[in-house]
Amino acid sequence: MTATPAAADLSRDLELALRLADAADAQSLPRFDSADLQVSRKADSSHVTDADLATERAIRDVLSTERPDDGVFGEEFGAEGDTHRQWIIDPIDGTANFLRGVPLWGTMIALAIDGVPQVGVVSMPALRRRWWGAAGLGAWTATDHDPRRIEVSAVDSLDDASVSFQSIAQWTRAGHRDQLLRLADRVWRDRAYGDIYAYMLLAEGRIDMVAEFDVKEYDIAAAVPIVREAGGRMTGFDGAETISDLSTLATNGVLHDAFLELLHD
Fold it and tell me: Start-end ranges of CATH 3.40.190.80 in the chain?
């Protein structure tokens, strides 16, 4: 088993990740709700904007100077370099929101060491919010005020749980529509907050579960250290401890096994 990096070592990586988020915000926010935003479609029919491309380039430019020996895996320009230490980037998570002028989008930056995300930063500049975490260093958020530490909820009953499920269509395509309906019938409250924002609500204790399908590593890697350092748990839908499962189940930890049992009953 690979040893967990020392918190002191990760603090330097976290500091860099926060500066990467600054560079990303400088590219993405001026293009948000812009009348001349350039939008095209990728091979999988998903949208990509000029802001997605410019934001990822800005992050890669900083990394090429400050971490030239590290690998990079980004949504727009793929993977290159070492996989032992790999920066995983989603330049704009929530591109559909971004291009429609909906402020629920953000940049996700993670450092994975031997495949395990150890550092994560999520920046949502249209909301003037940022979250970050690293193994052994806690989970934090900030707006215009001093950073504050965050933690997941202590809700211990499904009857009292508030959950986010991404979308009905997504669960249906994955063959789990019946499980979604069972989930909605069982919990106190169900909403589709969507994309990375739902995971940050979980880390802050606002909701108690997030689950989605058809996700890539860059869709969730940055959330992993934040949720785990906030006291939560993230696995694949089958309970596997991996970010390569193409699905994710994130909870406050207390309810994780109960959600797994409910969703697989």
Answer: 158-264
Burial of 165 (0-12, 13-18, 19+ CB in 10 A): buried
Specify the CATH architecture of the domain 7-149.
2-Layer Sandwich (3.30)
E strand or H helix at 42: none
Which pair of structure tokens corresponds to residue 112?
């994975």
Phi and psi of 238, rounded to 5°?
A: -90, 5
The matching CATH number, chosen from 2.60.40.3500, 3.40.190.80, 3.40.50.880, 3.20.20.100, for 158-264 is 3.40.190.80
The predicted-structure confidence for 174-229, as pLDDT tens digits, reads as follows 999 999 999 999 999 999 998 899 999 999 999 999 999 989 999 999 999 999 99
Question: In the prediction, which pLDDT does 1 show?
Answer: 38
Question: Where along the chain do the CATH 3.30.540.10 domains lie?
Answer: 7-149
Q: What six digits make up the tokens of 46? A: 């998903």
Q: What does the pLDDT look like over 115-131, one tens digit per residue?
A: 999 999 999 999 999 99
pLDDT tier, 243 (very low <50, low <70, confident <90, very high otherwise)? confident
**Rounded Cα gap, residues 255 and 247, in angstroms:** 18
Q: What are phi and psi of 62, to 5 degrees?
A: -65, -45
pLDDT at 4: 63
Q: Would the CA dihedral through 247, 251, 253, 255 be positive or negative?
A: negative
HSE (side-chain half, CA atoms, 13 Å) at 85 = 11
